[in-house]
Amino acid sequence: MTAQDFLKKTLKKWESLFEGIKLKYAYDAVTEYHIVEVKPEEIRRGSVDYKKAEMRLWVDFMEQYPDECLLICAPSDANDMTNILFETKTTWSFIISQEKVIREMVDYTRYDFYQVHSSNIAEIQLKNNSYALAA
């Protein structure tokens, strides 16, 4: 198993172990570092179980891949994360579905407004006995 496969497998486990964790893993070919960004800080610094899992990862990684470099940290602009190899699932699908629902509601509202507006115009025309001339 390559170091990349090992890290992706481990991070996939973390995703299910720590609710709310956000992980991003990239390999920086220039520095030859495996970079894992972890957030939020409440998990990274506040969870004893997470700290144990991170320590276990360090030990296992160094034993299996002694010539590889690993950085586990909070998100930082200093990290080159252009080559993302793993990222936790985001809630984009939920956001997209909400956007779709809102769009459908707006379309329905427009349709409903058009129907009400059109029928009001027809009622006003009937009340005023104003008839449109047919061509």
Commentary on this structure:
There is one protein chain. With 135 residues, the protein is of the alpha+beta class. The protein folds into two domains: 88 residues, GMP Synthetase, Chain A, domain 3; 45 residues. The chain is built from four helices and four strands; from the N terminus they run αββααββα. It has a four-stranded mixed β-sheet. The radius of gyration is 28 Å and the shape is extended.
Q: Which percent range describes the beta-strand content?
A: 15-25%
Mean of residue pLDDT values: 81
The neighbouring-strand order within the major sheet is: 3-2-1-4
Order of helices and strands: HEEHHEEH
**Assembly type:** single chain
Overall outline: extended
- The count of β-strands is 4
H/I helix tally? 4
The CATH class of the largest domain turns out to be Alpha Beta
CATH architecture assignment name of the largest domain? 2-Layer Sandwich
Number of domains: 2
Write the CATH fold name of the largest domain. Answer: GMP Synthetase, Chain A, domain 3
Main beta sheet strand tally, sense and closure = 4 strands, mixed
Class based on secondary structure composition and strand pairing: alpha+beta
* Helix proportion range: 40-55%
Task: Please write out the topology.
Layout: H1 3-17, E1 22-28, E2 33-39, H2 41-44, H3 48-64, E3 69-73, E4 84-87, H4 92-127
Helix pairs in contact: 1-3
Question: Which descriptors apply to this entry?
Answer:
135 residues, 4 helices, alpha+beta, GMP Synthetase, Chain A, domain 3
